[in-house]
Design a protein that fits this description.
Layout (H helix, E strand, L loop, with lengths): L1 E4 L10 E4 L9 E10 L2 H8 L15 E9 L11 E5 L8 E5 L3 E3 L13 H14 L7 E5 L4 H12 L3 E6 L2 H9 L4 E4 L5 H8 L5 E6 L6 H7 E9 L12 H6 L3 E4 L7 H14 L1 H5 L7 E6 L3 H10 L5 E5 L4
Parallel strand pairs: 8-9, 8-11, 9-10, 11-12, 12-13, 14-15
Antiparallel strand pairs: 1-2, 3-4, 3-6, 3-15, 4-5, 5-7
Helix pairs in contact: 2-3, 2-8, 5-6
Amino acid sequence: MYAITIPEPGGPEALVWAEVPDPVPGEGEVLVEVVSSAVNRADVLQRQGFYNPPPGASAYPGLECAGRITALGPGVTGWSVGDEVCGLLAGGGYAEKVAVPTGQLLPVPDGVDLAQAAALPEVAATVWSNVFMVAHLRPGETLLVHGGSSGIGTMAIQLAKAVGARVAVTAGGPEKLARCQDLGADILIDYREQDFVEELRQATDGAGADVILDIVGAKYLDRNVRALAVNGRLAIIGLQGGAKGELNLSALLSKRAAVTATSLRARPLAEKAAIITAVREHVWPLLADGVVRPVVDRTMPMSDAAEAHRLMESSSHIGKILLAAPKA
């Protein structure tokens, strides 16, 4: 088969479309012929040499895919050759074939195109696990989403609105904010021109956000704490603004607030399977009913992954960037 390889870390040009051995599904795995994969920030970090796959995972980038099962590994039940699926991966999505643990496999939701289903596993698992399983967002509460027009952001807006929460977003510029509003965002903040702490304070009559989903990290840490409501929960899932920041514990104590930080890729299989089970139970019916939908900026040939990474790094996209396998 062919896959995107990274012979040496570097810029987008470090991604090389090359012939490699076919994967073989192991115990509890299925082999998926990939129709499409999606680009994530983690893939960019891996390409740069900063985010290696966990032990035993594929060396190729790609944290999610959609396609058809072509073979079953030992001990697999409940799935059949020919099933159309999408899956959460520890790596290997930028390829024509990938082995996927069945605990990280999902059926393609009713009403969703197979190729577009590749836009779902990573964002659905990330948002559901952090916003709902960890931060426990409830109906009537306010969620602040940083990067509202990103793949994560567009999913977070929709899921929060689906459960009856109020949603505030930060994004760069009127076009991105307009798309967030189309998805249901109530409070629109241009981080380039506005102070999100002050804008949120005014929009919530001084209360602040009950939950904040943050992809920025250190750069926003102090302001995020100031933006939290009493009993607020800050969920950090990215470090685009740095890894080390100063935390004002006095401010945190005064608000009886909590700060959590999670990653998904290196979690044990059992933890990922539990998240995927929750996603199938809670998110998949919303997709089938059309309440939530994948937001795709564009689809590019998988062999042009370098150009897709340039687009990702420019932050000019809205939603997910998909990579189509050659046979798709």
